[in-house]
Design a protein that fits this description.
One of its GO terms (cellular component) is plasma membrane. With about 400 residues, the chain is an all-alpha fold. It has helices at about 20-40, 45-70, 80-90, 95-110, 120-135, 150-160, 205-210, 225-235, 240-260, 270-280, 285-290, 300-320, 330-340, 355-375, and strands at about 115, 165. The longest helix has 25 residues, at about 45-70. The relative contact order is 0.11.
Length: about 400
Amino acid sequence: MNEASFKVEKAPHIHRKDSVNRMLGDVLIALIPVLVWSIVAYQWDAVRNIVISILTMGICEFVFVLIVNRLPYDGQKHSFKERLLFAVKAYKPHNLLAPTVSGAIFALIMPATMDPSYMIYPALILGSIFGIVIGKLVFGGLGQNIFNPAAVGMVFAKICFGSYIVYPERDFFEVIAGGTPLASLEAPAGTNSLIGKFLSINDTSLLDLFLGQVNGTIGEAFKIAILIGLAYLLIRRAIDWRIVVSYLATFLLLSCLAGAIVCTRVDVNFFEFIGFQLLSGGMLFGVTFMLTDPVTSPITSPGRVMYGIIAASLTLLIRLLGAYPEGMAYSILLSNLLVPFIEYRSWSGQKFTYKKMIACAAIFAFAALAIGLGLGFGGEIVAETGGSR
């Protein structure tokens, strides 16, 4: 086969007869149930988040297209209108769809409001700008970024505006104002243990977690809407099932290991512990709409399996042993960072070799060992009248 037979294209590399616009459209359709539920639950707060995020990212993308596609110098003087029209011709449908998808996802992983309420505006605007500019445009635009823009924006907003974040009561579902279920995990008075905080799991209803009757970001709570979107994306093959299955399987197995340790040391039901880990926080939303991004995920099948294992391991390590209760966004960014290493040409390929299987098993074993040691030596439950040991 001669050199002229090859066609070089930018990511995302979709292994089917579909365009990038079709893939982005599928993601938008899959987001509709979550968007509708968030508007019903949070009303104008959700509408504000969605509109501001999409509009801000869309403007940044448009300005980027204008800057990159300037009229080349030809020795003649051209009017501003001529230069503008030349640049606008380079604006394609994906330049509209991509920031719309990223903006919608970013809006859904943000809180409905902040305290004081006006702080939500700089958080949304600056988070959207930082997410799309630093997470995508500085790399050259769609297909060249290595980080998920929505995750970058969310982490930036969390770091800069985390002290203003609140999760208010939703009148429609009559839930109590307060922190998210993950953030509310605290060791009771009289305990001196890493695992003592899991005692509060007994106070959380798994049905409420599944139906979205808990506090949290505007898009993560109602699991039925997320599962509908996940099913649609899998049926349409807009995302790779290997990432989803490897992530969920690893997450479930490591949760079982953690539950076996925790439930032997504190009075927590094993199945409630597992259900809590699966249904709380933004894990399900993240694996559906963010981790599976074809631009920032590996190309090869073994690489995608390894990618899912790494992301799930990082999520639970951050959740169970770290200071930050929700590890999904951080695990996505760290996994994105490892994709070039996973897909390094010297060992990447489409075939599952025994070396790749050993690598996947080693990653899982390392995570299991870290969780086992972390929870196993995380301190003892101490009686209120007793001292620390």
